Amino acid sequence: IETLQVPLSDQAAVEIEANGWASLWQETKEYTQRVFDNVQALQALLPNAIVVATGSFPVGTGLGADAISPRAFNRLSLQALVALATLFMAFERKGDWCDVLDLVLIVLLPKSAEGFRPIGVFPTAIRLWMRSRYGLAKAWQATHSLPITFGGAGKSAQYAAWQAALTAECAALEHLEHVQGLIDLVKAFEMVPHAILARFAAARGFPIALIRLS
Description:
Layout: H1 8-24, H2 47-55, H3 78-94, E1 105-110, E2 116-121, H4 124-132, H5 134-142, H6 157-173, H7 188-191, H8 194-203, H9 208-213
Antiparallel strand pairs: 1-2
């Protein structure tokens, strides 16, 4: 097995970046589970939803600490899939995962410009649950569509960029004044307190059992 040799300068850069993210995420803090009142149970999770979820992962997808490919779950028998679905629903009712799944690997991917972009690789069982319940979140999104160019169903960042470019070109052709502004919220997602996120999710009718377990 060939060992990847990383230059000391690169190791130092990665270490500095990792320490920065660890401080932002309050790595040493003891997180407390927020108490949710009147959490409505989700609809039953069908084994077929798990089968569909397994096939949605690319063959070469990254693996978490358990080193199990999501597609391997597609080899389970129907009885095993029913048991797994039952286990997922038990986690939803409890609002927490078991300790053996309590490990997320943080991978620092180099950016094209400078620095690194962290991604969290969850254990495969959790990723499989996320994909299995994705339809509920997607249905909620469809009923809360807003007249915006980004952040909604079918409104990706690429769509927003093309829409903004088209608007600017049309203004130029019509000899109209046109101004655009861009505000980039650096590390926005990491800075949102989970309690506030949960409160707004409840106010907007998002399935609380999903966000509690997330």
